[in-house]
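note to self: dont lose this again. the chain is below, predicted strucutre after it. 233 aa total, dont forget to put it in the shared folder this time
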Amino acid sequence: MDPQQPSSLPSSSPNFSSVAGPPSSGGKSTLLWVLIGVLGLGAVSFAILSVVAFGQAKVATTTLNQQKQAAAEAAREDQKKLDAQATITAAENPFRSYIAPIEYGSFEIKFPRSWSASVEQARSNQTQVTLIVHPDFIKRDNNANELAAAKILLVQRTLNEYVKVFQSQKEVKRSDTTVSGVKGVQLTGKFADKRTVRMVVIPIRDKSLVFFNEDSNFAPQFDQILAQSKVLP
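---
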């Protein structure tokens, strides 16, 4: 054999191109479909959870609104019952009240519901409040009021200033008394005006609240009015 002639023996080197071949695309497709399926399942799950959450929120809101409405209706019913009871109580109460405005001391005078009453208020006058209560009509005869069961005045004078006027009237007797826990002065006897039978004077700050009983037939009712009066000193 010619040493220059190439050998005809088959080569022992493997042919990799014929064994491995090009990479397959089947694996990529499978992975892609898996990812799509996972994402789709996640989207469906999220949609279901959103619908469930929305439904729960709607139910909770409806329930809360129903509870609020029920509470409001219950409150209205309770208020109706309270108003009805207050009306019944007021109708059964044999007394009614005059309550003075704040600038006059907010004092309260109770008197029988069936009585007549008149009140005058004047901020700038020496007598700021004049309240007259009487079982019958409150009458004036010849420009003068008839004798009243009770007359209450709020005057812009201190207790000592007001009572001092009666010290010269020897037939008027003075004694201590208390109205609504406030110490005052009681005057009884024959007064110069020939109208007053009994007078009670109570201090209200720098003013005086004066109770007059002119008709002695109503002395017991006058005592009731004094006992139920509320005075802030």
